[in-house]
Amino acid sequence: MSATFDFIVLGAGGFGSSAIYHLSKRGARVLGLERFGVAHDRGSSHGETRVIRKAYFEHSDYVPLLLRAYELWRELEAECGEDLYHEVGLVIGGMQDSDVVTGAKIAVAKHALTIESLTAAEGRKRFPTYNFPEEFSVVYEPEAGYLDVEACVRAHLDAAVKYGADLHVNETVIDWRIEGPGVRVRTDRGEYAAGGLIISAGAWSRPLLADLNVPLEVLRKVLLWYETPAQKFDVAAGNPCFFFETAGGEFYGFPRINGRVKLAEHTGGETVADPLLVDRSLRKADTVGPGEFIAKFMPDLPTRAAQHVVCMYTKTPDSHFIVDRHPEHDNVVIGAGFSGHGFKFTSSIGEVLADLVDQKRAALPIEFLSLGREALRA
Protein backbone atom coordinates (compact mmCIF):
# COMPACT_ATOMS: atom_id res chain seq x y z
CA MET A 1 0.00 0.00 0.00
CA SER A 2 1.06 3.61 -0.44
CA ALA A 3 -0.17 6.84 1.11
CA THR A 4 0.91 10.47 1.15
CA PHE A 5 1.28 12.74 4.18
CA ASP A 6 2.61 16.17 4.99
CA PHE A 7 5.12 14.68 7.43
CA ILE A 8 6.27 11.27 8.62
CA VAL A 9 7.82 10.69 12.04
CA LEU A 10 9.98 7.60 12.57
CA GLY A 11 9.61 6.49 16.16
CA ALA A 12 6.70 7.29 18.47
CA GLY A 13 8.46 7.14 21.82
CA GLY A 14 9.24 10.19 23.94
CA PHE A 15 10.41 12.60 21.25
CA GLY A 16 8.50 11.15 18.33
CA SER A 17 5.19 11.20 20.19
CA SER A 18 5.69 14.88 20.99
CA ALA A 19 6.65 15.78 17.41
CA ILE A 20 3.59 13.95 16.07
CA TYR A 21 1.45 15.85 18.57
CA HIS A 22 2.82 19.29 17.71
CA LEU A 23 2.57 18.78 13.95
CA SER A 24 -0.95 17.35 14.05
CA LYS A 25 -2.09 20.12 16.40
CA ARG A 26 -1.07 22.60 13.68
CA GLY A 27 -3.38 20.86 11.21
CA ALA A 28 -0.74 18.88 9.32
CA ARG A 29 -1.45 15.37 8.07
CA VAL A 30 1.06 13.28 10.01
CA LEU A 31 2.03 9.62 10.02
CA GLY A 32 3.78 8.21 13.06
CA LEU A 33 5.58 4.88 12.57
CA GLU A 34 6.43 2.83 15.66
CA ARG A 35 8.23 -0.51 15.62
CA PHE A 36 6.57 -1.64 18.84
CA GLY A 37 3.44 -0.50 20.70
CA VAL A 38 2.34 2.68 22.43
CA ALA A 39 4.50 3.48 25.49
CA HIS A 40 6.33 0.16 25.09
CA ASP A 41 9.15 -1.17 27.25
CA ARG A 42 11.66 -2.00 24.51
CA GLY A 43 13.46 1.35 24.17
CA SER A 44 14.30 4.31 26.39
CA SER A 45 11.00 5.91 27.44
CA HIS A 46 9.61 3.55 30.07
CA GLY A 47 10.05 2.65 33.72
CA GLU A 48 7.32 4.74 35.41
CA THR A 49 9.22 7.97 36.16
CA ARG A 50 11.80 10.46 34.87
CA VAL A 51 13.37 13.39 36.74
CA ILE A 52 12.75 16.93 35.47
CA ARG A 53 14.80 19.88 36.74
CA LYS A 54 15.76 23.40 35.72
CA ALA A 55 19.20 23.95 37.30
CA TYR A 56 20.79 21.88 34.57
CA PHE A 57 24.31 20.86 35.52
CA GLU A 58 25.04 19.22 32.13
CA HIS A 59 25.08 22.64 30.42
CA SER A 60 23.33 25.92 31.16
CA ASP A 61 22.34 26.24 27.48
CA TYR A 62 19.67 23.60 28.08
CA VAL A 63 17.74 25.84 30.47
CA PRO A 64 15.65 27.75 27.86
CA LEU A 65 14.56 24.39 26.47
CA LEU A 66 13.63 23.29 29.98
CA LEU A 67 11.63 26.41 30.76
CA ARG A 68 9.60 25.82 27.62
CA ALA A 69 9.27 22.14 28.50
CA TYR A 70 7.69 23.01 31.84
CA GLU A 71 5.15 25.23 30.09
CA LEU A 72 4.28 22.55 27.57
CA TRP A 73 3.92 19.80 30.18
CA ARG A 74 1.39 21.92 32.01
CA GLU A 75 -0.45 22.62 28.75
CA LEU A 76 -0.56 18.90 27.97
CA GLU A 77 -1.87 18.17 31.47
CA ALA A 78 -4.69 20.65 30.93
CA GLU A 79 -5.46 19.09 27.56
CA CYS A 80 -5.50 15.47 28.68
CA GLY A 81 -6.97 16.09 32.15
CA GLU A 82 -4.22 14.08 33.85
CA ASP A 83 -1.36 14.92 36.23
CA LEU A 84 1.88 14.18 34.40
CA TYR A 85 4.41 16.31 36.32
CA HIS A 86 4.86 16.07 40.09
CA GLU A 87 6.82 18.91 41.70
CA VAL A 88 8.42 17.13 44.64
CA GLY A 89 11.87 18.75 44.54
CA LEU A 90 15.33 17.35 43.87
CA VAL A 91 18.34 17.11 46.17
CA ILE A 92 21.81 16.95 44.62
CA GLY A 93 24.85 15.75 46.51
CA GLY A 94 28.51 15.80 45.56
CA MET A 95 31.88 17.27 46.31
CA GLN A 96 32.02 21.06 46.23
CA ASP A 97 33.92 20.99 42.93
CA SER A 98 31.87 18.14 41.38
CA ASP A 99 30.23 18.60 38.00
CA VAL A 100 26.72 18.25 39.42
CA VAL A 101 27.14 20.87 42.14
CA THR A 102 29.15 23.42 40.16
CA GLY A 103 27.09 22.88 36.99
CA ALA A 104 23.80 23.44 38.81
CA LYS A 105 25.10 26.66 40.37
CA ILE A 106 26.32 27.94 36.99
CA ALA A 107 22.86 27.35 35.48
CA VAL A 108 21.25 29.13 38.43
CA ALA A 109 23.52 32.16 38.12
CA LYS A 110 23.05 32.42 34.36
CA HIS A 111 19.26 32.02 34.34
CA ALA A 112 18.15 33.35 37.75
CA LEU A 113 16.77 30.00 38.93
CA THR A 114 15.86 29.01 42.47
CA ILE A 115 17.97 26.61 44.53
CA GLU A 116 19.05 26.23 48.13
CA SER A 117 22.69 25.54 48.99
CA LEU A 118 23.21 23.44 52.12
CA THR A 119 26.11 22.00 54.08
CA ALA A 120 26.25 18.25 54.57
CA ALA A 121 24.99 18.63 58.13
CA GLU A 122 22.09 20.83 56.99
CA GLY A 123 21.32 18.30 54.25
CA ARG A 124 21.18 15.39 56.71
CA LYS A 125 18.85 17.34 58.98
CA ARG A 126 16.60 18.53 56.14
CA PHE A 127 16.56 15.20 54.28
CA PRO A 128 17.24 12.46 56.87
CA THR A 129 16.87 9.57 54.39
CA TYR A 130 20.18 10.58 52.77
CA ASN A 131 23.56 10.29 54.44
CA PHE A 132 25.59 13.20 53.09
CA PRO A 133 29.30 12.86 53.99
CA GLU A 134 30.88 15.89 55.66
CA GLU A 135 32.91 16.69 52.53
CA PHE A 136 29.76 16.91 50.38
CA SER A 137 27.95 20.03 49.24
CA VAL A 138 24.18 19.79 48.90
CA VAL A 139 21.91 21.61 46.47
CA TYR A 140 18.12 21.50 46.72
CA GLU A 141 15.94 22.54 43.79
CA PRO A 142 12.30 22.97 44.90
CA GLU A 143 10.92 23.38 41.36
CA ALA A 144 12.21 19.97 40.23
CA GLY A 145 10.30 16.71 40.35
CA TYR A 146 9.32 13.81 38.15
CA LEU A 147 7.24 12.96 35.09
CA ASP A 148 5.09 9.86 34.63
CA VAL A 149 6.96 8.65 31.57
CA GLU A 150 4.53 6.21 29.94
CA ALA A 151 1.58 8.49 30.69
CA CYS A 152 3.38 11.38 28.96
CA VAL A 153 3.91 9.33 25.79
CA ARG A 154 0.30 8.15 25.79
CA ALA A 155 -1.00 11.69 26.36
CA HIS A 156 0.96 13.05 23.39
CA LEU A 157 -0.18 10.24 21.11
CA ASP A 158 -3.81 10.28 22.25
CA ALA A 159 -4.01 14.01 21.61
CA ALA A 160 -2.23 13.63 18.25
CA VAL A 161 -4.73 11.02 17.09
CA LYS A 162 -7.53 13.32 18.24
CA TYR A 163 -6.05 16.01 15.98
CA GLY A 164 -6.06 13.59 13.05
CA ALA A 165 -2.63 11.94 13.12
CA ASP A 166 -2.26 8.43 11.71
CA LEU A 167 -0.36 6.17 14.09
CA HIS A 168 0.95 2.81 12.88
CA VAL A 169 2.29 0.57 15.64
CA ASN A 170 4.12 -2.74 15.30
CA GLU A 171 5.42 -1.64 11.91
CA THR A 172 9.15 -1.75 11.16
CA VAL A 173 10.84 0.89 9.04
CA ILE A 174 13.22 -0.63 6.51
CA ASP A 175 14.63 2.53 4.94
CA TRP A 176 13.89 6.03 3.67
CA ARG A 177 14.98 8.00 0.64
CA ILE A 178 14.61 11.39 -0.93
CA GLU A 179 12.13 11.35 -3.81
CA GLY A 180 11.69 14.57 -5.76
CA PRO A 181 10.87 17.41 -3.37
CA GLY A 182 9.75 14.96 -0.67
CA VAL A 183 10.65 11.68 0.99
CA ARG A 184 9.54 8.07 0.73
CA VAL A 185 9.63 5.62 3.65
CA ARG A 186 9.55 1.85 3.18
CA THR A 187 8.34 -0.45 5.97
CA ASP A 188 7.52 -4.13 6.33
CA ARG A 189 3.93 -3.23 5.40
CA GLY A 190 4.31 -0.82 2.52
CA GLU A 191 5.57 2.58 1.39
CA TYR A 192 4.59 6.12 2.36
CA ALA A 193 5.40 9.50 0.84
CA ALA A 194 5.58 12.86 2.58
CA GLY A 195 6.90 16.36 2.22
CA GLY A 196 9.12 16.07 5.29
CA LEU A 197 10.58 13.49 7.66
CA ILE A 198 11.59 13.41 11.33
CA ILE A 199 13.94 10.66 12.49
CA SER A 200 13.51 10.09 16.24
CA ALA A 201 13.98 6.35 16.57
CA GLY A 202 16.05 6.21 19.76
CA ALA A 203 18.34 3.18 19.89
CA TRP A 204 17.26 2.31 16.34
CA SER A 205 18.49 5.64 14.90
CA ARG A 206 21.93 4.47 13.78
CA PRO A 207 20.88 2.50 10.67
CA LEU A 208 18.42 5.25 9.70
CA LEU A 209 21.31 7.76 9.80
CA ALA A 210 23.86 5.51 8.12
CA ASP A 211 24.52 8.05 5.37
CA LEU A 212 25.81 10.51 7.96
CA ASN A 213 27.95 8.08 9.99
CA VAL A 214 26.70 9.68 13.21
CA PRO A 215 28.74 8.38 16.20
CA LEU A 216 26.01 6.95 18.43
CA GLU A 217 26.65 4.34 21.13
CA VAL A 218 23.75 2.36 22.62
CA LEU A 219 24.15 1.36 26.27
CA ARG A 220 22.24 -1.17 28.35
CA LYS A 221 20.90 0.46 31.53
CA VAL A 222 19.11 -1.11 34.49
CA LEU A 223 16.41 0.53 36.64
CA LEU A 224 15.82 -0.96 40.09
CA TRP A 225 13.00 -0.75 42.62
CA TYR A 226 13.42 -1.41 46.37
CA GLU A 227 10.42 -2.16 48.55
CA THR A 228 10.22 -0.48 51.95
CA PRO A 229 7.43 0.13 54.48
CA ALA A 230 9.21 3.25 55.77
CA GLN A 231 7.01 6.30 55.24
CA LYS A 232 9.98 8.65 55.65
CA PHE A 233 10.80 7.93 52.00
CA ASP A 234 7.46 9.47 50.97
CA VAL A 235 6.92 12.90 49.44
CA ALA A 236 4.52 13.63 52.29
CA ALA A 237 7.45 13.26 54.70
CA GLY A 238 9.47 15.79 52.71
CA ASN A 239 11.47 13.28 50.69
CA PRO A 240 12.36 14.51 47.17
CA CYS A 241 14.02 13.00 44.10
CA PHE A 242 17.81 12.70 44.38
CA PHE A 243 21.01 12.75 42.31
CA PHE A 244 24.44 11.96 43.76
CA GLU A 245 27.86 12.22 42.17
CA THR A 246 30.09 9.82 44.13
CA ALA A 247 33.48 8.18 43.74
CA GLY A 248 31.62 5.03 42.71
CA GLY A 249 29.51 6.69 40.01
CA GLU A 250 26.43 8.87 39.57
CA PHE A 251 23.16 7.61 41.04
CA TYR A 252 19.64 9.01 40.94
CA GLY A 253 16.22 8.06 42.17
CA PHE A 254 12.79 8.99 43.42
CA PRO A 255 10.74 9.15 46.59
CA ARG A 256 8.71 6.10 47.55
CA ILE A 257 5.85 5.51 45.11
CA ASN A 258 3.45 2.61 45.70
CA GLY A 259 5.69 1.24 48.43
CA ARG A 260 8.89 1.25 46.37
CA VAL A 261 11.91 3.50 45.90
CA LYS A 262 13.31 3.55 42.36
CA LEU A 263 17.07 3.94 41.93
CA ALA A 264 19.51 3.64 39.02
CA GLU A 265 23.10 4.35 38.09
CA HIS A 266 23.48 7.08 35.48
CA THR A 267 27.12 6.28 34.73
CA GLY A 268 28.47 3.05 33.26
CA GLY A 269 26.53 0.70 31.03
CA GLU A 270 27.34 -2.07 28.58
CA THR A 271 27.52 -1.35 24.84
CA VAL A 272 24.65 -2.88 22.89
CA ALA A 273 25.38 -4.15 19.38
CA ASP A 274 21.73 -4.87 18.50
CA PRO A 275 18.90 -3.19 20.46
CA LEU A 276 16.63 -6.14 19.64
CA LEU A 277 18.97 -8.50 21.46
CA VAL A 278 19.72 -6.51 24.61
CA ASP A 279 19.83 -8.72 27.70
CA ARG A 280 16.77 -7.83 29.78
CA SER A 281 17.52 -10.19 32.66
CA LEU A 282 18.90 -8.96 35.98
CA ARG A 283 22.54 -9.86 36.46
CA LYS A 284 24.33 -9.92 39.80
CA ALA A 285 26.67 -7.18 38.56
CA ASP A 286 23.68 -4.91 37.90
CA THR A 287 22.96 -4.57 41.61
CA VAL A 288 26.50 -4.18 42.97
CA GLY A 289 26.95 -0.44 42.38
CA PRO A 290 23.43 0.52 43.50
CA GLY A 291 23.77 -1.76 46.54
CA GLU A 292 27.02 -0.06 47.57
CA PHE A 293 25.42 3.34 47.02
CA ILE A 294 22.48 2.42 49.24
CA ALA A 295 24.70 1.10 52.00
CA LYS A 296 26.69 4.33 52.11
CA PHE A 297 24.16 7.04 51.25
CA MET A 298 20.68 5.59 51.98
CA PRO A 299 21.35 3.09 54.77
CA ASP A 300 17.70 2.74 55.80
CA LEU A 301 16.73 1.35 52.40
CA PRO A 302 16.90 -2.43 51.80
CA THR A 303 19.71 -3.39 49.42
CA ARG A 304 17.83 -6.26 47.73
CA ALA A 305 16.00 -5.12 44.59
CA ALA A 306 12.38 -6.23 44.30
CA GLN A 307 12.00 -5.40 40.59
CA HIS A 308 14.07 -4.32 37.63
CA VAL A 309 13.60 -2.98 34.10
CA VAL A 310 16.20 -2.69 31.34
CA CYS A 311 16.24 0.34 29.06
CA MET A 312 18.82 1.91 26.76
CA TYR A 313 20.77 5.14 26.47
CA THR A 314 21.75 6.28 22.98
CA LYS A 315 24.85 8.39 23.61
CA THR A 316 26.82 10.90 21.61
CA PRO A 317 30.57 11.36 22.31
CA ASP A 318 29.92 14.52 24.35
CA SER A 319 26.60 13.30 25.85
CA HIS A 320 24.71 16.23 24.30
CA PHE A 321 21.71 15.77 22.03
CA ILE A 322 21.53 15.95 18.25
CA VAL A 323 18.68 18.22 17.15
CA ASP A 324 19.21 19.49 13.63
CA ARG A 325 18.28 19.28 9.98
CA HIS A 326 20.01 16.81 7.69
CA PRO A 327 23.00 18.64 6.13
CA GLU A 328 21.94 17.67 2.59
CA HIS A 329 18.13 17.59 2.88
CA ASP A 330 16.43 20.42 4.74
CA ASN A 331 13.11 18.53 4.83
CA VAL A 332 14.70 15.77 6.94
CA VAL A 333 15.10 16.50 10.66
CA ILE A 334 17.05 14.50 13.23
CA GLY A 335 16.39 14.08 16.94
CA ALA A 336 18.85 11.53 18.33
CA GLY A 337 21.56 10.80 20.88
CA PHE A 338 19.65 11.97 23.94
CA SER A 339 22.28 10.25 26.10
CA GLY A 340 20.13 9.21 29.03
CA HIS A 341 18.99 12.68 30.11
CA GLY A 342 16.54 13.63 27.38
CA PHE A 343 13.02 12.64 28.38
CA LYS A 344 12.27 15.76 30.42
CA PHE A 345 12.77 17.75 27.20
CA THR A 346 10.40 15.74 25.03
CA SER A 347 7.60 18.30 25.21
CA SER A 348 9.79 21.19 24.03
CA ILE A 349 12.13 19.34 21.68
CA GLY A 350 9.15 17.71 20.02
CA GLU A 351 8.00 21.25 19.31
CA VAL A 352 11.47 22.14 18.00
CA LEU A 353 11.52 19.12 15.69
CA ALA A 354 8.11 20.15 14.37
CA ASP A 355 9.36 23.70 13.82
CA LEU A 356 12.44 22.51 11.92
CA VAL A 357 10.55 20.28 9.51
CA ASP A 358 7.55 22.59 9.13
CA GLN A 359 9.10 26.08 9.23
CA LYS A 360 12.79 25.23 8.60
CA ARG A 361 13.84 27.05 11.76
CA ALA A 362 13.39 26.78 15.52
CA ALA A 363 12.24 29.48 17.92
CA LEU A 364 14.32 28.01 20.77
CA PRO A 365 18.16 28.12 20.87
CA ILE A 366 19.49 24.75 19.69
CA GLU A 367 22.75 25.71 18.00
CA PHE A 368 24.80 23.86 20.62
CA LEU A 369 23.00 20.64 19.63
CA SER A 370 23.93 20.86 15.95
CA LEU A 371 25.01 17.87 13.91
CA GLY A 372 28.09 19.78 12.74
CA ARG A 373 29.69 20.37 16.15
CA GLU A 374 33.29 19.33 16.72
CA ALA A 375 32.51 16.43 19.06
CA LEU A 376 30.57 14.59 16.34
CA ARG A 377 33.23 14.82 13.65
CA ALA A 378 35.02 11.61 12.83
Overview of the structural elements:
The structure is a single chain. With 378 residues, this protein is of the alpha+beta class. It folds into 2 domains: 166 residues, FAD/NAD(P)-binding domain (3-Layer(bba) Sandwich), CATH 3.50.50; 152 residues, 2-Layer Sandwich (D-Amino Acid Oxidase, Chain A, domain 2), CATH 3.30.9.10. It is 25% helix and 30% strand. It contains 8 helices and 20 strands. Strands 5, 6, 7, 13, 14, 15, 16, 17 and 18 form a 9-stranded mixed sheet that branches. Strands 1, 2, 9, 10, 11, 12, 19 and 20 form an 8-stranded mixed sheet that branches. A 3-stranded antiparallel sheet has the order 3-8-4. Helix 1 packs parallel to helix 5 and helix 2 packs across helix 8. The two termini are 39 Å apart. The mean pLDDT is 97.
What's the Cα radius of gyration? Answer: 21 Å
| N-to-C span | 39 Å
Low-confidence stretches: none
Second-tier CATH architecture of the largest domain: 3-Layer(bba) Sandwich
Helix content: 25-40%
Strand content: 25-35%
Largest sheet: 9 strands, mixed
Order of SSEs: EHEEHEEHEHEEHEEEEHEEEEEHEEEH
| Number of separate structural domains | 2
CATH superfamily of the largest domain: FAD/NAD(P)-binding domain
Question: How many helices in DSSP terms?
Answer: 8
Could you name the CATH topology of the largest domain? FAD/NAD(P)-binding domain
Secondary-structure-derived class: alpha+beta
Give the CATH level 1 class of the largest domain: Alpha Beta
Shape: globular
